[in-house]
Amino acid sequence: MPLRPVEHALLKGAMFGYDTYEVYAAESEQEALDFLNGIVVIEGQYYVVVETPAAVVARDRGGIYRPSKSWRGDGWVAQKWKQMDGKGRRQFWRHWSGAFDDGTAGNSPSGKRWWEFWK
Predict the structure, then answer these.
(1) Of 34, 89, 102, 116, whose CA is between 20 and 30 Å from 83?
(2) 12: part of which helix (H) or strand (E)?
(3) pTM
């Protein structure tokens, strides 16, 4: 499978504010690096993370780096790609250039829409 969006999370920052995570999955590290080299992150506390079977590679405004395999930490709570409708996917996966409606939009068992994530 090619690179694909997986999760989006907004978590309380370690020092202040909130950390935003766009999480993707890729088959190879080279595919992950190609994607990360093609995007720009200018916001502080904004992280684009790509997980591969062999490694985790991420980008923030400081550049590309390799977080630990346990980068999610204990308090990880995320919205899944398949739980979002097309509007939510456009809102939260800013660096995704593929299709936003792949036939799975908003088909979660709970029927949640993107705006319910913030309640």
Answers:
(1) 34
(2) strand 4-12
(3) 0.71
Q: Judge contact between 19 and 41, C-beta under 8 A.
A: no
* 11 CB-near residues (< 8 Å, 6+ apart): 18, 19, 21, 75, 76, 77
Nearest CA to 57 out of 79, 77, 35, 78 is that of 35
Is residue 29 within 8 Å of residue 57, measured between CB atoms?
A: yes
CA 39 to CA 24: how far, in whole Å?
13
- pLDDT tens digits for 30-87? 999 999 999 999 999 999 999 999 999 999 999 999 998 788 877 777 767 666 666 6
Which residues is 7 bridged to in the sheet? 23, 80
Q: What is the pLDDT of residue 117?
A: 47
Structure tokens that stand for 8 in this block = 């989006």
Sequence length of the chain is 119
Enumerate residues 6+ apart whose C-beta is below 8 A from 48. 21, 22, 24, 36, 39, 41, 58, 59, 60, 95
